[in-house]
UniProtKB/TrEMBL annotation:
Protein name (database record): Antitermination regulator
Segments forming domain ANTAR: 176-237
Pfam hit, one: ANTAR
InterPro entries: ANTAR (IPR005561), GAF (IPR003018), GAF-like_dom_sf (IPR029016), GAF_ANTAR (IPR012074), WH-like_DNA-bd_sf (IPR036388)
Lineage, top ranks: Bacteria, Bacillati, Actinomycetota, Actinomycetes, Micromonosporales
Keyword Cell wall biogenesis/degradation set for record: no
GO molecular function: RNA binding
Entry keyword Transcription regulation: yes
Record keywords, A-Z: Transcription, Transcription regulation
Length: 246
């Protein structure tokens, strides 16, 4: 095989590996509603799927909350944790909104304290890529290598695509979580209404189900009959309250 053909084969394999990574990431996060759970799944998938990367971490900043951390290996979590100091490749990526790469930490001097900890943990290279989630959450995905010189142009491209895709998926996770919270608040308000609460109690007794499932039954009936949920509740309560003929 000549040189051009070998390079083409390597490039093609890189594209296929990246496409497989993004598919796996989508499948892993598409049904998750918890942001921290999504981060844990993200770093696990990335660490397993990106060739040459042994560990993956994520540094998350959310408005009004302490910085969050996820790590594929708990031993390395301190490298993503801003509680150990704000000078790190992850924080540089977040501040500057650009990818940061240090292919050889044995000669790196930009983050002395962080680099010293990384070397002691066996890390020899890092790429940090900024991740834009939404107006209240940003972060950095951090790819770690155990050997100097492992991380190159191909890894930078993968990190860029991974960060872009992760940002979209994490934004969807947060949106689902907000919708679930609104639905929960709405359900609480509905259950607080006397007639709806009574109807839910009737269904719970009849079916032996929890309140949330009973409320879903009411919603389904309202949708099927095309009438307001409160009217369905009123009809049910009236029906069960009506004395039976002897």
């Amino acid at each position: 095989m000549n040189l051009d053909m070998r390079e083409l084969t390597i490039d093609t394999l890189g594209v296929l590996e990246t496409a497989a990574l993004l598919r796996e990431l989508t499948a892993g996060l598409i049904a998750v509603d918890d942001f921290d759970e999504a981060l844990t799944e993200l770093v696990r998938i990335a660490a397993d799927a990106v060739p040459g990367v042994l560990w993956c971490g994520f540094t998350a900043l959310r408005a009004g909350e302490p910085a969050g951390v996820a790590a594929s290996d708990p031993r390395l979590a301190e490298l993503d944790d801003l509680g150990h100091g704000a000078e790190s490749p992850a924080m540089d990526a977040i501040r500057r909104r650009e990818m940061i790469i240090a292919a050889d930490l044995t000669v790196e001097d930009r983050w002395p304290a962080w680099t010293d900890r990384a070397r002691r943990l066996g890390v020899r290279g890092v790429i940090s890529a900024p991740v834009d989630v939404d107006e209240r959450a940003i972060g950095s995905i951090n790819l770690y290598a155990g050997r100097s010189g492992t991380l190159g142009t191909r890894h930078q491209l993968t990190a860029m695509l991974l960060a872009e895709h992760a940002g979209l998926l994490l934004a969807a996770v947060r949106d689902r979580a907000r919708r679930a919270e609104r639905d929960s608040e709405r359900d609480g308000a509905l259950l607080g209404e006397n007639v709806v609460g009574q109807a839910v109690g009737v269904i719970m007794t009849q079916r032996g189900c929890p309140a949330s499932e009973a409320l879903d039954v009411l919603r389904s009936a309202a949708s099927s009959l095309d009438i307001p949920l409160r009217e369905v509740a009123e009809r049910l309560v009236t029906t069960v309250s009506r004395p039976r003929e002897s």
